[in-house]
Amino acid sequence: MADKNAILAGLAEIVEEETGLETEEIQLEKSFTEDLDIDSISMMTIVVNAEEKFDVKIPDEEVKNLTTVGDAVDYIANAAG
Amino acid sequence: MTQHPALTPTQPIDGTAVLGLGVHRPNVVVDNEQICRWIDSSDEWIRQRTGIVTRHRAPADVSVVDMAEAAALDALKDAGIEASQLGAIIVSTVTHPYKTPSAAAALAARLGATPAPAFDVSAACAGYCYGVAQADSLVRSGQTKYALVVGVEKLSDIIDNHERSISFLLGDGAGAVVIGPSETPGISASVWGSKGENWESVGMDSSLLRLRDALAEAQETGDASRLLDREEHLWPTLRQDGQTVFRWAVWEMAKTAKLALEKAGINPEDLSAFVPHQANMRIIDELSKQLKLPEHVLVGRDIADAGNTSAASIPLALHRLREENPEISGGLALQIGFGAGLVYGAQVVLIP
């Protein structure tokens, strides 16, 4: 199991790059759409960058299930296994 | 084995080039305020998500062939070629409302280009690059001396203004090029292909057979309620799964664009312009970023004014770039189309 703190930190950098949000704002319980105001197009950019950074595959149909930052961290941790 | 004389094949030539470029922009301007009367949205939301400020749409009495004719005449004039010299007419469109005969055959007759072979290409937003790839091959093989390629769409005929996945992006228009022989190659090898596994990610929401069957049912039963029910969507219109298409359009197409540069034997810094299909400003921006284009490379951003015009978008965007920056004439443009199929095509061309 990959280190979830490291994944969160890496994911926060990707989100910051795409949205300009501060990395401290990217917390596990935050919802991508509700709290961080990330639209579907930005979400795809984040997903593709995360795939590259963590060397995992996140299929389109899975993206819809990634509601919170924590969901994404868990998915990446499991996929990176 | 029967004895027979050797067959005479075509005599290939070394190179081809785009000799002239022309467009037609229909005059009905649909702004975001109008769009927001159809869907619950705002000017700000649409600009932020798509970069679109207006789209141009054709009036009811203007057809695909009318728009194609206007663009073709403009391109012929730009090329200094007479319609009678054309040896092939290729019309890329998904909105000519007759399954047969083709828009191209009608166009050939209107232009006075008969008996040139004439046919339509159904490759949606990749249609223009598909057409250029075919015209280049026809001319280079010696089959044809001059070929006309038209990308034309009246997408307003196949949209549902009240749905929000794609309709608000779309506009109408036409762009045309004349392709002919050139001592210096002015069109690179094309990179083109398909990914039918994603057939359902963008395209019509049903076939015309559903409408036919509903009509037959209404005539048989005398009950026309289904025909009148807006929720039935009997007239097929476009839909898309935006996220899937966006992902493919950026990250897969960036690879295709890079391959097209490689096949052309050039680097990004050799380009004067990058003209991707005008699908969405966010796709254009992200693609440009992925390609690491140097600052001097102009990027086609006609979508802000014209919307997404499918097969017409690349020639329209290239034409606008050339109008606003005449110095790019004689420079190289990387063009890439991608869309419903999924299908894609890319090549580098010398800007006429």
Key features of this structure:
heterodimer, A: 81 residues, mainly alpha, Non-ribosomal Peptide Synthetase Peptidyl Carrier Protein, Chain A, 4 helices, B: 352 residues, alpha/beta, Peroxisomal Thiolase, Chain A, domain 1, 3 domains, five-stranded mixed sheet, globular, phosphopantetheine (chain A), cytoplasm (chain A), PP-bd_ACP (chain A)
Show unreliable segments of chain B.
none
Q: Helices and strands of chain A: which structural class?
A: mainly alpha
CATH hierarchy, class of chain A: Mainly Alpha
Going across the biggest sheet of chain B, name each strand in turn.
1-7-6-4-5
**First and last CA, distance of chain B:** 51 Å
Q: The CATH topology of the largest domain in chain B, please?
A: Peroxisomal Thiolase, Chain A, domain 1
Brief digest:
The complex is a heterodimer of chains A (about 80) and B (about 350). With about 80 residues, chain A is an all-alpha fold.
Descriptive notes:
The complex is a heterodimer of chains A (81) and B (352). By secondary structure, chain A is mainly alpha-helical. Chain A has a single domain (4-80), classed as Orthogonal Bundle (Non-ribosomal Peptide Synthetase Peptidyl Carrier Protein, Chain A). Chain A contains four helices and no strands. The mean pLDDT of chain A is 88. With 352 residues, chain B is of the alpha/beta class. Chain B folds into three domains: 16-181, Peroxisomal Thiolase, Chain A, domain 1 (3-Layer(aba) Sandwich), CATH 3.40.47.10; 191-200 and 238-350, Peroxisomal Thiolase, Chain A, domain 1, CATH 3.40.47; 204-232, no CATH class. In chain B, helix 3 packs across helix 4 (103-111) and helix 8 packs parallel to helix 9. Classes of the chains: A mainly alpha (81), B alpha/beta (352). At the A-B interface, helix 2 of A face helix 8 of B.
